[in-house]
Amino acid sequence: MHICYLGIGSNLGDRRTKIKEAIEKINSLKGTKILKASSIIETDAVGGPCAQSKFLNAVVKAKTSLLPRQLLKKLKIIEKELGRKKTVRFGPRLIDIDILFYGDKLVKTKKLTIPHKKVFQREFVLKPLLEIL
Q: Which run of H or of E encompasses 97?
Protein backbone atom coordinates (compact mmCIF):
# COMPACT_ATOMS: atom_id res chain seq x y z
CA MET A 1 0.00 0.00 0.00
CA HIS A 2 1.14 3.51 -0.83
CA ILE A 3 0.22 6.79 0.86
CA CYS A 4 -0.96 9.49 -1.51
CA TYR A 5 -2.36 12.99 -1.20
CA LEU A 6 -5.09 14.18 -3.54
CA GLY A 7 -6.33 17.71 -4.16
CA ILE A 8 -10.04 18.13 -4.86
CA GLY A 9 -11.72 21.31 -6.10
CA SER A 10 -15.00 22.57 -7.54
CA ASN A 11 -16.34 25.96 -8.64
CA LEU A 12 -19.60 25.02 -10.36
CA GLY A 13 -22.92 23.72 -9.07
CA ASP A 14 -23.23 22.43 -5.52
CA ARG A 15 -19.50 22.61 -4.88
CA ARG A 16 -19.48 21.15 -1.36
CA THR A 17 -21.62 18.18 -2.40
CA LYS A 18 -19.38 17.47 -5.41
CA ILE A 19 -16.30 17.40 -3.18
CA LYS A 20 -18.00 15.09 -0.68
CA GLU A 21 -19.17 12.80 -3.50
CA ALA A 22 -15.64 12.70 -4.91
CA ILE A 23 -14.25 11.72 -1.51
CA GLU A 24 -16.85 8.94 -1.17
CA LYS A 25 -16.07 7.63 -4.66
CA ILE A 26 -12.31 7.69 -4.02
CA ASN A 27 -12.86 5.82 -0.76
CA SER A 28 -14.88 3.17 -2.62
CA LEU A 29 -12.12 2.43 -5.16
CA LYS A 30 -10.85 -1.12 -4.81
CA GLY A 31 -7.64 -1.14 -2.80
CA THR A 32 -8.04 2.49 -1.71
CA LYS A 33 -9.03 4.00 1.63
CA ILE A 34 -9.27 7.65 2.68
CA LEU A 35 -7.30 8.10 5.91
CA LYS A 36 -7.87 11.79 6.51
CA ALA A 37 -9.64 14.74 4.87
CA SER A 38 -8.93 18.42 5.36
CA SER A 39 -11.48 21.12 5.91
CA ILE A 40 -13.05 22.51 2.78
CA ILE A 41 -11.84 26.05 2.08
CA GLU A 42 -13.05 28.70 -0.36
CA THR A 43 -10.54 30.45 -2.60
CA ASP A 44 -10.41 32.62 -5.68
CA ALA A 45 -9.78 30.89 -9.00
CA VAL A 46 -6.10 30.89 -10.00
CA GLY A 47 -5.25 31.22 -13.70
CA GLY A 48 -7.67 30.47 -16.49
CA PRO A 49 -10.45 32.73 -17.73
CA CYS A 50 -11.30 35.87 -15.76
CA ALA A 51 -14.43 36.24 -13.64
CA GLN A 52 -14.69 32.61 -12.55
CA SER A 53 -16.66 31.68 -9.46
CA LYS A 54 -14.71 30.93 -6.30
CA PHE A 55 -13.49 27.39 -5.72
CA LEU A 56 -14.03 25.12 -2.78
CA ASN A 57 -10.90 23.01 -2.20
CA ALA A 58 -9.83 20.14 0.03
CA VAL A 59 -7.00 17.64 0.30
CA VAL A 60 -7.28 14.00 1.31
CA LYS A 61 -4.69 11.52 2.50
CA ALA A 62 -5.32 8.01 1.22
CA LYS A 63 -3.65 4.65 1.08
CA THR A 64 -3.90 2.73 -2.16
CA SER A 65 -2.65 -0.39 -3.85
CA LEU A 66 -3.21 1.24 -7.25
CA LEU A 67 -0.14 2.31 -9.16
CA PRO A 68 0.05 6.04 -10.04
CA ARG A 69 -1.24 5.64 -13.62
CA GLN A 70 -4.02 3.31 -12.48
CA LEU A 71 -5.03 5.80 -9.80
CA LEU A 72 -5.04 8.66 -12.32
CA LYS A 73 -7.27 6.64 -14.65
CA LYS A 74 -9.73 5.89 -11.83
CA LEU A 75 -9.77 9.56 -10.73
CA LYS A 76 -10.56 10.68 -14.29
CA ILE A 77 -13.47 8.20 -14.33
CA ILE A 78 -14.75 9.66 -11.05
CA GLU A 79 -14.55 13.18 -12.51
CA LYS A 80 -16.63 12.08 -15.51
CA GLU A 81 -19.16 10.29 -13.27
CA LEU A 82 -19.57 13.54 -11.34
CA GLY A 83 -20.25 15.48 -14.54
CA ARG A 84 -16.89 16.97 -15.49
CA LYS A 85 -16.57 17.90 -19.13
CA LYS A 86 -13.46 19.11 -20.92
CA THR A 87 -13.75 22.84 -21.59
CA VAL A 88 -11.29 25.72 -21.41
CA ARG A 89 -7.95 24.92 -19.78
CA PHE A 90 -8.04 26.05 -16.13
CA GLY A 91 -11.67 27.02 -16.67
CA PRO A 92 -14.64 26.45 -14.39
CA ARG A 93 -15.35 22.84 -13.47
CA LEU A 94 -17.76 20.75 -11.45
CA ILE A 95 -14.91 18.67 -10.01
CA ASP A 96 -11.15 18.45 -10.29
CA ILE A 97 -9.07 15.73 -8.63
CA ASP A 98 -5.27 15.92 -8.74
CA ILE A 99 -2.62 13.55 -7.43
CA LEU A 100 -0.37 15.81 -5.37
CA PHE A 101 1.99 13.21 -3.92
CA TYR A 102 2.26 9.44 -4.19
CA GLY A 103 4.61 8.07 -1.53
CA ASP A 104 8.13 9.12 -2.41
CA LYS A 105 7.63 8.45 -6.12
CA LEU A 106 8.71 10.88 -8.81
CA VAL A 107 6.71 10.53 -12.03
CA LYS A 108 7.00 12.63 -15.16
CA THR A 109 4.98 11.63 -18.22
CA LYS A 110 2.80 13.58 -20.66
CA LYS A 111 -0.30 12.88 -18.57
CA LEU A 112 1.07 12.70 -15.04
CA THR A 113 3.63 14.57 -12.97
CA ILE A 114 4.20 13.62 -9.32
CA PRO A 115 4.66 15.58 -7.20
CA HIS A 116 2.11 17.84 -8.86
CA LYS A 117 4.11 20.52 -10.68
CA LYS A 118 2.38 23.49 -9.01
CA VAL A 119 1.69 22.09 -5.55
CA PHE A 120 4.12 24.49 -3.84
CA GLN A 121 2.73 27.54 -5.68
CA ARG A 122 -0.90 27.10 -4.69
CA GLU A 123 -2.12 28.24 -1.30
CA PHE A 124 -5.44 26.46 -1.95
CA VAL A 125 -3.47 23.19 -1.91
CA LEU A 126 -0.86 24.00 0.73
CA LYS A 127 -3.26 25.21 3.41
CA PRO A 128 -5.45 22.06 3.48
CA LEU A 129 -2.38 19.85 2.95
CA LEU A 130 -0.65 21.31 6.00
CA GLU A 131 -3.83 20.80 8.01
CA ILE A 132 -3.74 17.02 7.52
CA LEU A 133 0.03 16.46 7.69
A: strand 96-102
Instruction: Say whether 14 is catalytic.
Output: no
122 tagged catalytic: no
44 is catalytic: no
In the residue annotation, 93 being an active-site residue is answered as: yes
All domains in the chain, ordered by first residue: 2-132 (3.30.70.560)
Q: Active site residue: 89, 98, 104, 122, which one? A: 98
CB 54 within 8 A of CB 11: yes
Catalytic, out of 15, 69, 93, 122: 93
Q: Are 6 and 26 in contact (CB under 8 A)?
A: yes
What is this structure's pTM?
Answer: 0.90
Per-residue model confidence as pLDDT tens digits over 9-33: 999 889 999 999 999 999 999 999 9
> How large is the greatest C-alpha to C-alpha distance in the chain, in angstroms?
41
- Going by C-alpha positions, the residue among 132, 120, 116 that lies closest to residue 60 is 132
